[in-house]
Specification:
Distance between the termini of chain A: 41 Å
Radius of gyration of chain B: 13 Å
Shape of chain B: globular
Shape of chain A: globular
Oligomer: heterodimer
Structural class of chain B: mainly beta
Number of helices of chain A: 0
Strand content of chain A: over 45%
Order of helices and strands of chain A: EEEEEEEEEEEE
Largest sheet of chain B: 7 strands, mixed
Radius of gyration of chain A: 14 Å
Number of strands of chain B: 11
Chain lengths: 114, 112
């Protein structure tokens, strides 16, 4: 079946540090890949997405590149802010026999200190 | 103007009770979902409806029953609540499964 694996958290960084959250996936076919962010006390919201190999999704200074050869979609940001403290979820949609099902990774808690 | 709204936001109830959580979306989406998030933030899909038709029914106790009176609403009814049902339940909707999912703010259910 389809699956998403994220790096273990929690991750704690100082403001302006470089962020990488690793995400690898297993899926049949050519899935669409997503990063969602969950701020404290809120629901998830889409951060960025990529729908085919070598696509780069970007938003709010975050970037992730769809790497089919390594089945990865790592999230990066060059300089994090305190306001980036949240839970980050990598997800995929593969369709086919998994029609309608968005598969999430386990989430990575990020805390940024001033 | 909330795109996906859930009620109530907090729900505290005793074991054995029956409760419902309501969800409404005003985005005109065809597909709606229920997810359960545990204390470690892990998200598990429970159900999905497309145009009022059930398309995903994961391994969930049959004490949980979704109901979709129309494509803008997807409610979750839970019978005989157990301590292990304590979690945050999220409703979500999408225009199509491979497009952006919009989530409600969640319902924190605590069973005592």
């Amino acid at each position: 079946g389809n699956s998403v694996t994220q790096m273990e958290g929690p991750v704690t960084l100082s403001e302006e540090a470089f962020l990488t959250i690793n995400c690898t996936y297993t899926a049949t076919g050519y899935p669409s890949l997503f990063w969602y962010v969950q701020y404290p006390g809120e629901g998830l919201q889409l951060l960025l997405k990529a729908t085919k190999a070598d696509d780069k999704g970007s938003n709010k200074g975050f970037e992730a590149t769809y790497r089919k050869e390594t089945t990865s979609f790592h999230l990066e940001k060059g300089s994090v802010q305190v306001s980036d403290s949240a839970v980050y979820f990598c997800a995929l949609y593969a369709g086919g026999t998994s029609y309608g099902k968005l598969t999430f990774g386990q989430g990575t808690i990020l805390t940024v200190h001033p | 103007d909330t795109a996906v709204s859930q009620t109530p936001k907090y729900l505290v109830t005793q074991m054995g009770n029956d409760k419902s959580i309501k969800c409404e979306q005003n985005l005109g989406h065809d597909t709606m979902y229920w997810y359960k998030q545990d204390s470690k933030k892990f998200l598990k899909i429970m159900f999905s409806y497309n145009n009022k038709e059930l398309i995903i029914n994961e391994t969930v106790p049959n004490r949980f029953s979704p109901k979709s009176p129309d494509k803008a609403h997807l409610n979750l009814h839970i019978n005989s609540l157990e301590l292990g049902d304590s979690a945050v339940y999220f409703c979500a909707s999408t225009r199509a499964p491979n497009t952006e999912a919009f989530f409600g703010q969640g319902t924190r259910l605590t069973v005592v």
